[in-house]
Structures are given as C-alpha cells and as structure tokens.
Amino acid sequence: MEERPFSDISYEQYLKEEKLMGSRCKKCGALFVPPRSICIKCYSSEMEWVEMKGDGRLHAFTCITVAPPFMIEQGYDRKHPYCAGVVDLEEGVKVDARIEGVDATKPEEITIGMPLKVTFLHWGEGENQETFLAFQPV
Amino acid sequence: MQKKRKLGRGVAVVGAGMSKFGMFKNKDSKDLFAEAFREMLESVDKGFDPNDIDALYLGNFSNDFFMHQGHWGPIISDLIGLAPKPATRTEGACASSALAFREGVFAIASGFYDIVLVGGVEEMSKRTTEEVAEGLALAEVPYEARVGFTFPGVFGALATAYFAKYGANREHLMNVTIKSHSNARLNPKAQFPYSIKDMMNLKIESAKKKGKPLPHWEDEKAFLRDPNANPVVAWPMLLYDCCPISDGGACMLLVGEEIAKNFTDDPLYVIGIGQGSGKGLHAAKDLTTMEATKNAADEAYGMSGLKPSDIQFSEVHDCFSIAELIHIEDLGFFKPGEGYKAVAEGLTKRDGPMPINTSGGLKCKGHPVGATGIGQLFEVWKQLRGEAGERQVPKKDLRIGAAHNLGGTGGTCTFTILERR
To answer: Fewest CB within 10 angstroms: A77, A125, B375, B377, which?
Structure first.
C-alpha cells in the first residue's frame, strides 16, 4: 500500500476515492477505522493501511429533523429528515455514517441489525467536493 | 479497582447562587452571573468580604460561538471586582463548570488558595435552534458531526441501542419526562416550572385564545404521543425528550475545610470528586453505557469510601431523557438494564427511595451548558441544607447528595459527592 500518513485527512481522501480505509498495527494486529497513527493497544507506530469490505450491520441510528446548517444546505429540514447511524463492520469495528435508502420519516421501519453495504455520497464540485461515508440496506 | 485518591486538604462549600434559567432577551451573560453572585453573597450565613476571594474558576463552553465573544474568565472577574486576581476558564462542553468546581477544589486542596469562587455561565438563546444545534455539535467527536449527527441525534442513537438491548421503548422515556416536569413545577428557577398536565392546560388555553379547535388528550402519555404537541427532533428523541436552549449563570464559594466555620455553621464538605473521558460512538464498546461516567463514579466512590446505595439523592445529567436512564445505571443506582424499570416504578420520584433530578433536571430547569455543572450542585446545596422549599426531598437525616455532569456526547463526565455533617 502507498505511503499516506495515517490521518483523518488521508481517511477523507480515500473516501473521495470510494475506499473505506483503516489502519492496522503491524505489531499487535489491532484495527482502527478511522485510522490511528499510534496504536492505543500496544503503542507501536508501525501501521499499515487496510481496506474494509464495506459490509456491515446497523448498530444504532437516529432520524434527524432539526438539522445543522450544512445538512440544510444539502436539502434536509424538518419536513425532510435524514438518517445517521453507527455501523458494525464485518471486520469487527464500528463507524459513524449516513444511512441512505431508508425512509427517515418512518423510523419504526428501520431495524437494528439490518445488513448494510457501504456507499459514498459526493457533494459539491471540483476542489470543494466533499465525500460522506454512507451505508444502505443490502 | 481504582487507586484510592484523596485531597491533600479538605474543602467545603460555604455559599451558592444561581440565576433563573431561561431564554432572556434583555439579560446577557454578565447580568446572569451577577444574579448568581448576589445570591451567593447572601447565602454565606456569617457574611464575608468578597475582596478575600483568592481566584476564580469559570466554566464556559462556547460563548465564543453563541455570542462571538471569548475569554470569559477576566470578563466575569472584572464584573465582580476580582481583577487583578487570577481568573481561569475551564471548558468541558456541558460539563465546563463541573470542571471549574474540580479545579477550585484542587487549588484549595493544594494549599495554594484558601477561598475560591467557582462558577459557570452560558448564553445560547440569541441563536436559532439550527445554529445552536451546530454550536453544540462542536463538542462532538469529529466523525459524528461529519455525517450529520446532532446532539439529540447522538442520544437518539444511544436510545435505539438501549431499546434493542433491554427491550425498553419510547413509553419508558416518557416516564422520565413526566417525572422531571412534576419536580420542576416546584422549582421557581426552572425554565419550565410546569408539570406535563400544566403544559397540556397551557396549550388548551392558547387554542382558546386563538379561537382554534381545543385539543384533547386522555392523559400525559397521550399528550407526549401526539406529534403536534411533541414533534420529532432526532428519533427517538422528541421535543419533550430534549433539554431546552437556555441562558444562565451559577456560582459557589469554596474554602479550606478548617476555615469553613468562619463562614457558616452549616458547610457542605466535598467528600468525593471524579472525572472521566469518553471516546465517541464508533469507538465505544457498548452504546448503553458511558465509560467516562463509570470512571468518574469510581474515582468519587473510591475517594469517599461510599457505595451507590449511600447516595441519598442525585442530580443526573439528563440533556436527553435516555441520558438519565443510562447514567442512573452507570452510577450504580440501578443495575444495567434496570433503569427504565426503576423510573416506571416511581423509584426515582422526589418521594421515592432514590430521588433523581429534584430540580426538574436539565429538561425542565434548563441547560445553559457552561452553568449546568454548578447549577446541579446548587440543587444539592439547597437540598442538603433543607432549603429546597416545596421540592425538599422528604427523607429524614438528609446528609449525602451527588451530582453527575456530562459534556459533549460523553467526552467529559464528572461525579461529585457532597456531605452535610
């Protein structure tokens, strides 16, 4: 794998490339997503990049109607809620992500444990383009 | 087990004051702190000269964002005539002033100071709800805010995890809300000094005045189930699961234990003080518990030598209804998964065996975030000294009370135990 620093900036760059990446400690094997440059299990700094398969299950979620300004910009508001969640990845770690492909106005129909697949939401153009990690039902 | 910690010198609380909490168009942070300071001065039974205060520790989360003004230590120090004495601002999100309290305790315990003022202030209501949501999200873990989690959203997610693990549901959250409102009714400083029944009547009155059809609800839970009365903020957190946007100030006077009786014959002693840090949703092992709270509780119980069952009542950080359920378990008052049953059985009511949030909690008393930690301890002060009026806990020999304060999405938690001897 290439020599990118194990940082949030690299994590975001990889998301733009539609890759969900974490760091694994070469000494003890601990896995971190988003990546850490210091292993908090054994304090080694010898890390390697690993790509997640992108398969997971819904661990917890919320459907948000009172949105912060940057989400309102993306078209969400009190009448158009969105879903955010915590996802258990098959690799044994959790990530925070947007949950797409569900009806956020019907939270009763969204179930904990439902299988999910990674997707990447691109927003904006050119240099200002941002990518948000998301998952959707399989 | 935690190492048993102790203070190098005992510390006592000898005065306390709190402004009314609420949304104030014509009062700013200085006015609200002044209100708290004046009450604190009057509360010192034997009186004292404010010029004897050695230093100020002030909690403020983010007036920088809310008011576009930072550096509140010296502003408040000047307000109350303390300058040029040292003023230090502490920041731990919604636990900012519990950290000020802790730093004040340590400053006295170290022997460096004898008389310290600790306080907190926040002014949030001049922003829109959406802006406040953005401001509070500054205290989240970056990965949470990035994917659109608001504060209510994070706690909503915790609730879905709690429901899935223990079989609780939204109806159980309503019990927390109804209990908090019935306590706040007796607290004149509360932002919403109304029971849910009062709120229902207010809505009916308002409809009458406007000539609209009169709403009708069978009972409190029917009201809380009505999406018009109680809309979703961040499922499963509805409006009545969420603390309001508030302005307020609070302060306390701390002194070395050996001089406490110069100020009052009835001081409260700081017998347990704990703090912990948390990691954020994605890194937490279990979303139905908070490691930061557990660490804070371990430190405080270890220092005091007390067990959870020794605590006679407690303020518990209920920024959202689910937070109260999680924390009454983490603090050891109830077993994991039993908190929601305890509230349903009325065990946490003011006249129950373990009164929680007799002040009305953050939900009803209000949550001016930087003032909340000391605001909670103010309730403990009032209750332990038998000065809580109508909402006095009806227990004989009330001696030990506690306050649990949480910052961010569990990033900073504190637990403080006070004793009346």
So the answer is: A125
Q: List all residues 6 or more positions away from B225 whose beta carbon is below 8 Å from its beta carbon.
A: none
Residue of A52, A64, A131, A135 to mutate for B, most B C-beta atoms under 10 A: A64
B289-309 burial code (b ≥16 CB/10 A, e <16): bbbbbbbbbbbbbbbbebeee
To the query of whether residue B181 is one of the catalytic residues in this protein, the response is no
- Quick check: A86 and B287 CB within 8 A? yes
Bridge partners (DSSP) of residue B94 are B92
Complex-level ipTM beyond the 0.90 threshold: yes
The conformation of residue B257, written as its DSSP 8-state character, comes to G
| Chain B contact present for A102, CB below 8 A | no
CA distance B375 to B36: 10
Mark yes or no for CB contact A71/B148 under 8 Å: yes
Count, residues in chain B: 421
Which chain A residues in 44-73 lie under 8 Å from chain B, judged by CB atoms? 59-72
Distance CA B394, CA B391 (A): 8
In terms of Cα–Cα distance, which of A131, A17, A135, A5 is closest to A83?
Answer: A135
pLDDT digits (tens, 9 = 90+) for B291-317: 999 999 999 999 999 999 999 999 999
Sign, Cα dihedral of B34, B414, A88, A122: positive
What would the two tokens of residue B373 be? 């930690």
φ, ψ for residue B59, nearest 5 deg: -90, 130
Per-residue model confidence (pLDDT) at position B138: 85
Residue of A nearest to B146 (CA): A132
pLDDT in tens, B235-281: 999 999 999 999 999 999 999 999 999 999 999 999 999 999 999 89
**End-to-end Cα, chain B, rounded Å:** 28
Nearest to B75 by CA among B67, B64, B83: B83
Interchain proximity A62–B133, CB inside 8 Å: no
Which alpha helices (DSSP H) does B252-360 contain, by range? 291-304, 321-330, 339-344
Beta bridge partners of A118: A135
Distance, in Å, from the CA atom of B405 to the CA atom of B403, rounded to the nearest integer, reads: 6
Annotation marks residue B319 as catalytic: no
CB A46 within 8 A of CB A27: yes
Pull the structure tokens for residue A24.
């694994």
Question: Which neighbouring-strand residues pair with A2?
Answer: none
Q: What is the token pair recorded at B97?
A: 């002033």
- DSSP class of residue B306? -
Residues in CB range of B230: below 8 A, 6 or more apart: B223, B224, B238, B239, B240
Tokens of B222: 């029917």
Under 8 Å between Cβ of B367 and B243: yes
- Per the CB < 8 Å rule, is B236 touching A112? no
Rounded to whole angstroms, the Cα distance separating B35 from A103 reads: 48
The end-to-end CA distance of chain A, in Å, is: 29
Residue B414's beta-bridge partner residues? B275, B405
Predicted confidence band at B2 (pLDDT cuts at 50, 70, 90)? low
Q: How far is CA B33 from the centre of its chain?
A: 17
**Cβ contact, residue pair B164, A112, below 8 Å:** yes
- Choose, from B172, B181, B327, B367, the residue flagged as catalytic: B367
